[in-house]
Structure of MmcQ/YjbR family DNA-binding protein:
Amino acid sequence: MAHPIMFRDDDPVLARVREIALAFPGAFEKVSHGRPAFFVTKMFVMYGGSVKPATKGDHIQYPQSIMVKVDETERRALEQDGRIFSPAYLGAAGWLGLDLATRKVDWDEVAELIDASFRLVAPKKVIRQLDQA
């Protein structure tokens, strides 16, 4: 059974995330688990996320957010930010979420997080291509 679509294609925040993510060499988008996900062989960013509550109940949704893979050396500092959350399912695999709906978005920060995630999953030859551009 297919996952329900969990985004609006006319979402201006998604449009900006899409613009950043698709600028990376070899990047492509596909819908995964009902959400826009951006890949370069492996996924490097997903738009929208959720948190599994500590007690029984529905997941807490963050529809305007990104989930990115983070370097363990950066994790502690990032977790101090109130906009950061540990996403359901992907959190255990080293991913963090950034809520983009809480206040004015710093798009340079978003681009840096996406860049760092891309570099953690992209093949070395693609990273060299990025560095040469």
In short: The beta strands are 28-32, 35-40, 42-51, 60-69, 84-85, 95-99. The chain has one domain: 12-123. Residues 3 and 12 are 23 Å apart (CA to CA). The radius of gyration is 14 Å.
